[in-house]
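Internal tracking record. Fields below are filled automatically when a chain is submitted to the structure queue. Please do not edit lines marked as system-generated. If the sequence contains nonstandard residues, flag them in the REMARKS field before resubmitting.
Queue: standard
Priority: normal
Entity type: single polypeptide chain
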Amino acid sequence: MLAAVLKDFNNLVLEEVETPKPGAREVLVRIKSCGFCATDYKAIKGIRRNVTFPLIPGHEPAGVIAEVGPGVKHFHVGDEVICQPSGYCGVCEQCRMGNTHYCEHAYTTGGDGPDDVRPGAFAEYMVTGEECLFQKPANLSFDAAALTEPLSGAWKGVIQKSELQVGEDVVIIGTGGIGLLCLMVAKAAGAGRLIAIDASEFARNNALACGATHVIDAKSANVKEQVYGILPKGPDLVIEAAGPVAAVKLMVDLRRRGTRWNVFGITTHETFELDGGYTHFLEGRMDASFGTTPLAMLHSIQLMERGLVDPTRIISHRFPLTEIHKAVETMGMPGRNKVMIQP
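SYSTEM-GENERATED OUTPUT FOLLOWS
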């Protein structure tokens, strides 16, 4: 099969490799679409260093089952499926508590996090465990289905962790792909005023198209004033979906009494300060969210199947696998949003 193999940082090679065979309780999936995540790009460019070579990246796929291994009970050849990247054992303490993304025996296909990283979906075929599969609803395109995992992360952060309530005012800092998905989830959940903050005019326009009631240029000198001009009582919930530590510092600055805030986008080991007494008397709540779970995946599929969220609205570019290097180049350009690979 054809695959994009990362041999070293900045050395992604398109080559023919042996098509994998599914083992016990595993399936072989013919990849139809796969999202290009920023973490894939960071691995390719050497920005993220926790990579073992060789690696086939790509952890947001959907496709068709081509072969099933021994012991597979619930899926069959020809089924159209959505693949969760994080595999789990189901029997450790964390799994039995519902925290499958904390699994003591976790693996990932094409992503990062666990020590056990398996070949991903920037390839014509990928092997994964039966526990990672979900049936693709007939009314979803493969592109939409491939975005289940990032959408599930948005649901998990906004709804499960930060417990957004109908009518609450929300500020989202950073409206790239994941920020827009958080925005659309918040909109579908009945957010009141929904403010998007981003330094990019392109990103702010996307936010308006996806349901933001207001947008603010992050480069403005008076961002907090603008937010409180729109929300005189301050935000109920602030979600940082940008990544830079400056976005986290802005989130901290926007709090009022009772504000909930979610450290969602920053994944690098940087520090920010909190005034202990001020934080104590604000009586707010900090949450964070990473990865996904079967529960979050199911809710994400429901949002799409029932027409409440259309994640394909964030797609800006599509490339065949043979043009993976053009896709990598596009990932580093301004004015792009979600990039999809279609083997």
